[in-house]
Each structure stands twice: as structure tokens, then as C-alpha cells.
Amino acid sequence: IIAGFGCGEASILQEMVPFPVIGLLEASLSAALLFGRKFSILSGGEKWKPILEKQVENFGLASRLASVRTVSMTGAEIV
Questions:
Q1: Quick count: other Cβ atoms within 10 Å of Cβ 56?
Q2: Contact of 40 with 67, CB cutoff 8 Å
Q3: Which of 21, 22, 49, 50 is the S-S candidate for 13 at Cβ 3.0 to 4.6 Å?
């Protein structure tokens, strides 16, 4: 599992290595789908909202996304 949440690092590595690679976002989406029909994402940093919406769309899951909500603090500030 690659610990990048919204930037597609896993898809780049999938083309380069002969073993499975999954990103943190893909793993999170897969887990969320186990618990219900719709899911929401809560993230630090307002700039992530459109990025995450696009990534969810790229995975073909836009119809299952209830919302993407952000808090004003960035992930680094939260930590």
C-alpha cells in the first residue's frame, strides 16, 4: 500500500512493478464500500476536495460518493 491519498502514485507504480500495488485512497474506498451503498470523505485541507472528487470519479465510484468535506487545517497542521 502506497501512502499517498489523492495523487495516483499507485497507478504509476502498477505499470512498473510485477506485483500488486494499491494506494491509500483505493484501499480506503474499497473498505468504505464494504459498509454501505454510499460513502463520504473527510479530509484536511480545502484544496483536496476537487482532487478527491476527481479521483473517486476516476475509480468509477462517483455515483456512490455522498460528499467530500474538508476542514480548513491541512493534514500537516492536524498532525
A1: 20
A2: yes
A3: 21
